[in-house]
């Protein structure tokens, strides 16, 4: 009966060590207040966990608000403060049920809850609002120099409207809290979570444990004790940082001018230390403006940023970018870490919206940055920037045209990721398409179909390249201007990258060419558009100038000659051109003789003169004139009133009479024909044939002979040809559809059209049905007269320029007709026919899509004139079958019949995805990867191929079984504090099973982990062997020693009556623990005895007075990591 009573008292007393304090008053102090509960928890000791619960009367916010007018007591260890125990529901969208409002006057002590050097603190369900007088914000929670701190949990989060500071702490867990917003989560307020020198950080956790943080999160390493080399572990997952609680908007109230997340290592005199960190930022919604969003600097180790949404929701549908706010960079890295932005698995990629740039890799040379499968859109800058100091950055380029299979070049061995461009401006990777690998020559190819502009990146050795974008290099630009209003200008020398689609347009946006170099340009402005869609690049407008010479005769000075001398001149005739240095001048007389090469013509006789201006390097010639110089002294000739009598066709009965001549003294007359032969010597000319004649006059002055202008005696019954309205009909498509019409002929009865070989090709006035060439007309009549027209050149119509755009294409493979070229023609102007011709000249297709073997194909288009013209030549590439490298395969035999054999497949280079079909001796499939593992001895086969069916090969393998010699397990002798359960552990355990034997060789237990739980009653030896399959090692020995066997025999009663028996409480072997402590408590938890080293045993007295008879409870701490010894002792008198 007495033993039962002692046991009941022992249980009651031990429950008292862990206590629950209930807050029933919202007053600042007094019984049942929060202050009272904190004081009692601190006084109750830290050996067991205490709890503070709430049961405040009333249900309103005021009823459940604790107002602290002076600083609350410091928090203690092993304490749980749980506001969710308060009845009557939560505040707003938070889990908080109790509000703590602290308004204190001490300027240096403005943290509502504060702890220093504590461990195992948990806080749940509190709304903490801490405003200093005057409105200055303060900390809601401040923890320094502590162990493990937990703030919030699933459905037990807190609501903070002031900052949180955690410094020099081992572990910090922060879950399900709402921070720095209104209670409904719709209005943001500035606030900061500042974590300094915290070894292990968890912000959020899973999708049910994430926090809402409307302010900023800063994580810094120790800036004082920079020698701290302990690695830091940071996990920020499933949080809402910068958006409202419902994650559907982020207005101006959520705006901050600091990074939402900043993680920074230590610095020594301004130089980074690069502490080891392992950082995971995953599945967060992060909205920010006026600042970079995530900055990580001065760390080494690893960084993974995966599955986050920047300025959008998790689906990438909503836009969280407030109007009129500036945006910067989503992720900035300045580390020596191995960084991963996104990842290879579905859901790893981040979604980045409305930033100037996506990711800025400013890492040091020791750091790397892999950017994989992220979705970026509507960026104002580049998706990925790389600092110039980073070495060994791979490169990638798209070299295929839209008519070909998507292909390009990259650093050999790189993984090339392909994306569709976004719908906003710029060249941004929005939708992941595929990943291919570049071969040993740096070539890559994608065989799938594509439906839009593609952006590519390359990754090698965990470092990603810049993303491709259409680029123009204008350094080699060469412009040839047009002249004489002709289409003879050209633009060349521009270099392009990442696109083979070219479109030249004029100022009206009309397409004028589709080649990189363009010719036949008229004067005007033109620009090159490289690529298609939003991923295109445009050159500035390039001006093709008109170099046609221009004459200005407003101030011309003409000086006539006299006496027929060369003393006439033409001056001040101005000639201008866009490029004066290319202007060439030449004066010509009526006989086309060159007289000068400057703008002024001097020292010339009377006559007719023409100035010819030419643009150097072209056939552009413009003329001015003729300018007529007359003789101002000596004889003169006036033919204005002359009477012309026509001659009959072939007859000498024509005449020129009524000629007026003035002169001095005796005048002589000389008429000459076109051949210079004198045909008359009187003033009037009679009895001459039709033709041209000149009158020369000499008077009695010293002036030389004066000659008239040539005049004509026409024919009667002659023929005239009016060619002013002649019309040339061009030839279409090398046919005979050309013609010459519009000539007006009088006096002719017969017509002959002659070609340049002088062969007759027509006998009517209008010539039709002719081909390209030169033609002239011979017109004749019955009177024997014949006239010849000018020579006309009939040319071919220029071919129609269609706006052809690529739709897609694919390479042929397996030597089959399965390659494709696909085109479309934009605009209303469509060809009447399409024809594809192979290298042998055979027509192989007549539609916009050609399906054929690998090879070269010419495209011909037929226009509305039924004219077929060659457009350009295309190629369908052939994809070679995969190459199997047997040198990379490896067979690992099984050991001890464990089924641990393996076969590594040979290397394969071809078109992904690669296929592996492993089968056993019965033909059953047993694997589908590049390595077949965990197999027993036997025969196996592998069928390996790439995406092409013609690459398939089957290889046979044999796996053998090998016996393995096992070494004895490695064991360390074990010392324990007292009899009881102990763990025997194999050092560096391997595969298989471990078997435990006692000293007599009796098998006691087996374990795969090498760890055995054994009830140790006394010191003894144990033996362990390792069994792997059918192989067993020799045994290893371990000695288990009980160091304090005497402590198992602590007396449970004393009788301090000075009879010399059991007067003091003797603890055997306690002398071996000089730092050990002994505490004894009464049934009310009050300490009645304390000793270090137990030099003075307990004698049933306190402060010299006898303690009452009864049961007491002891706690013995040996200070050797042996745990606490607890029990009861009874005083009997």
List the helices and strands and how they pair.
Blueprint (H helix, E strand, L loop, with lengths): L1 H16 L2 E4 L10 H10 L6 E5 L10 E4 L10 E4 L15 E5 L10 E4 L4 E4 L1 E5 L8 E13 L7 E2 L2 E12 L3 E2 L12 E13 L7 E2 L2 E5 L11 E6 L2 E2 L19 E4 L2 E2 L2 E2 L2 E8 L2 E2 L7 E13 L2 E2 L18 E14 L8 E3 L3 E5 L6 E5 L2 E3 L6 E3 L9 E3 L7 E5 L4 E7 L7 E9 L5 E4 L7 E7 L2 E2 L6 E3 L4 E3 L8 E4 L2 E3 L4 E5 L4 E3 L4 E4 L2 E7 L6 E2 L3 E3 L5 E3 L4 E3 L8 E4 L2 E3 L6 E7 L4 E3 L4 E4 L2 E9 L5 E9 L6 E3 L4 E3 L1 E2 L5 E4 L2 E3 L5 E6 L4 E3 L4 E4 L2 E8 L7 E2 L3 E3 L1 E2 L3 E3 L4 E3 L8 E4 L2 E3 L3 E6 L4 E3 L4 E4 L2 E8 L5 E3 L3 E3 ...
Parallel strand pairs: 1-2, 2-4, 3-5, 4-7, 5-8, 6-9, 7-9, 8-10, 9-11, 10-12, 11-13, 12-14, 13-15, 13-16, 14-17, 15-18, 16-21, 17-22, 18-23, 21-23, 22-24, 23-25, 24-26, 25-27, 25-28, 26-29, 27-30, 59-68, 80-87, 90-98, 99-106, 107-113
Antiparallel strand pairs: 19-20, 31-32, 32-35, 33-34, 33-36, 36-37, 38-41, 39-40, 40-44, 42-43, 42-45, 45-46, 45-47, 48-51, 49-50, 50-54, 52-53, 52-55, 55-56, 57-61, 58-60, 60-64, 62-63, 62-65, 65-66, 65-67, 69-72, 70-71, 71-75, 73-74, 73-76, 76-77, 76-78, 79-81, 81-84, 82-83, 82-85, 85-86, 88-92, 89-91, ...
